[in-house]
Amino acid sequence: MESYEKEQMFQVREASLDDLPQVMMINRLCLPENYTYFFFESILRNYPRTFLIAEVDGKIAGYIMCRVERGFSKFDRLSLKKLGHVISIAVLPEYRRRGIAKTLLSNALKALKEHYGCEEAYLEVRISNSPALALYQKLGFTIVKVSRRYYIDGEDAYVMARKL
Ligand code: ACO
Ligand code: ZN
User: Fold this and answer.
1) N or C: which end of the chain has fewer CB within 10 A?
2) Ligand 1 centre and the CA of 25: distance in Å?
3) Mean pLDDT by 10 residues, the chain (164 residues)
């Protein structure tokens, strides 16, 4: 096999408790929004079908974690719906641009719909985060709102959503 082909290979599976230390390390390396072990663990225990990791040669390269919420639709503000909230997604720099985040997100969206019965998904993203914005747009998310000074450093967030 050619080495460039080998580099494309990754596997996606549901996370286990044993994966959390590595997931937390990736989160810290890739994002300023970090969480406690207790937070990761409670998301995993409550929503295991949408807490996914991608592995390359047995090493965790990226993760996604989501939560199910009841709230007003991002498209029709008068109707209460089950919403899938994408809390965090990240891929280590050396494994980027090979479709890992796209696969993590599309698999998580499928599980939000099919396993948890969500009708929409939404997330917040820094308005300057063009790689993530491009990813979300590619997967059908649109900007539904700007949350001013959403982040602790004062940056605004786009709230992006899509129907499932
Ligand atoms: N520039 C432009 N478009 C991009 C980029 C980029 N740097 N990265 C991804 N995209 C778009 C492209 O359309 C790409 O398709 P293509 O490669 O065929 O052109 C598509 O997204 C899918 O890209 P993937 O390869 O699946 O994305 P990757 O695995 O590289 O991960 C991610 C993208 C997660 C945004 C990564 O850059 C990362 O970890 N960044 C730091 C952490 C972060 O910002 N996470 C999101 C915060 S918001 C939240 O968590 C809800
Ligand atoms: Zn959020």
Assistant:
1) N
2) 18
3) 60 98 98 97 98 97 98 93 98 97 98 98 98 98 98 97 98
Cβ 68 vs Cβ 80: under 8 Å: no
The ligand that comes nearest to the alpha carbon of residue 28 is 1
Q: 123 CB less than 6 Å from ligand 1?
A: yes
Angle between helical axes of 20-30 and 37-46 (0-180°, round to 10) = 120
User: Does 66 sit in the ligand 1 pocket, CB within 6 Å?
Assistant: no
Sign (positive/negative) of CA torsion 82, 39, 151, 49?
negative
> Is the full-model pTM beyond 0.85?
yes
132 alpha carbon – ligand 1 mean position (Å): 5
Q: Quick one: which of 19, 7, 105 has its CA closest to 56?
A: 7
Is residue 134 in contact with ligand 1, taking CB distance under 6 Å?
yes
Secondary structure element (H or E) that encloses residue 27, with its range? helix 20-30
Q: Is the CB of 105 under 6 A from ligand 1?
A: no
Query: How many Cα neighbours within 13 Å face the side chain of 34?
Result: 13
